[in-house]
Amino acid sequence: MKIDYKNFEIEVYDDPTYIAHIYDIYTSNKREYEKIYSEFEAEPSKDPDFFYTSNYAIIINESGKEISSAIICEIDRQTTINKNSLIIEKDKIWICACNKIYCLTIPSLELHWQKEIDAFTNFSIYKLEGDFIIPGKLEIFRITKEGEIIWHFGGRDIWVNIEGKNELTIENNTIRLFDFQSNEYVLDFDGNQIEDNPRIVPEQIKKKW
Could you tell me the pTM of the whole model? Predict the structure, then answer.
């Protein structure tokens, strides 16, 4: 994914084969990055079966020349980069990485902050007024741009819908949600539930024979 921002071209992509040298000095990667962000840097793993589930590379180019690069390495539930994985504005990039959100400065890609939001997985990030909405697998979160949780909301089931409905839609002044069972919830921007529409499953007709 390539994004034009000011006079920069920002490239963000998955690098699934990357192995950090902090774990194996003999590793030979196809490309290296100036900065490596991983919570395990302080205590490298000795497990030969250890691997990252998700690696997100960020490259910043200016006038066709690379000026900075970074990779985020996470080991929790695997996620991949898509158009809703990140937001870029005000010289910062906020990006979902497994169950965490990372905030990096542009163009240096220095780490501003990182924080676990959903305990399982953060699927995406959306703007909401001056904050962000994070749909996680277990809960929906509203956070500030500094990563502080304003409110969170949990439904009857996980926030993955197998019937193809949008799990989260922002409509006018409301947030419409559908969980795994297609139970519907409507919240205001303060996280207050204003509608609760449980899915009604028709009773099976009993046979007489």
Answer: 0.85
